[in-house]
Design a protein that fits this description.
The chain has 155 residues and is an alpha/beta fold. Helices cover 48% and strands 19% of the residues.
Length: 155
């Protein structure tokens, strides 16, 4: 699985393990859901930038923890030349918000980043939580992936 991780703004700093956790979570979802040959972009950012994106794309004027932009939702023209790459989409995670939530829930920042990455990946694969039944299914899938990662609720 090709995992492209970037920071925005570039001067944003956080422990190196954060990137590794996000990459590991993407790869685990890829393995479990049969999309190992896909490409995913993960941007680690701050509340200000994710707030801008949330307002621009969802008309919600506040920061959030994670946004996912799936590239397989609409009909794209088929490209016949060159290698076939399944670009799943982009995940944007607010490291600031993740830190606040980790404190609130009483677990580590690494665990929260892994969870938000799994959540974002499931959205890229078509899972949603708008309806109660969908929410329960997505929560179950999240638990399964987190268990496979060996990350408990308290981690």
């Amino acid at each position: 699985m090709e995992v492209i991780i970037s920071h925005y703004p570039e001067e944003l700093t956080f422990p190196d393990e954060i990137e590794e956790n996000a990459k590991r979570a993407v790869e685990m979802v890829g393995k479990l859901y049969g999309v190992e040959n896909a490409e995913v972009s993960v941007t680690l950012t701050d509340d200000a930038y994710i707030h801008t994106l949330n307002r621009q794309y969802r008309n919600i004027d506040k920061p959030t923890d994670v946004l996912s932009f799936a590239l397989n939702e609409s009909e794209e023209p088929e490209i016949t030349d060159g290698p076939e790459v399944n670009v799943l989409g982009d995940i944007i995670i607010s490291v600031e918000r993740a830190g606040e939530q980790a404190k609130e829930y009483g677990h580590s920042l690494q665990r929260e980043i892994a969870f938000l990455t799994v959540h974002g990946m499931l959205h890229l694969l078509g899972y949603d939580h708008m309806e109660e039944e969908e929410r329960l299914e997505m929560e179950q899938e999240q638990r399964i992936v987190m268990e496979q990662l060996g990350i408990s609720r308290e981690a």
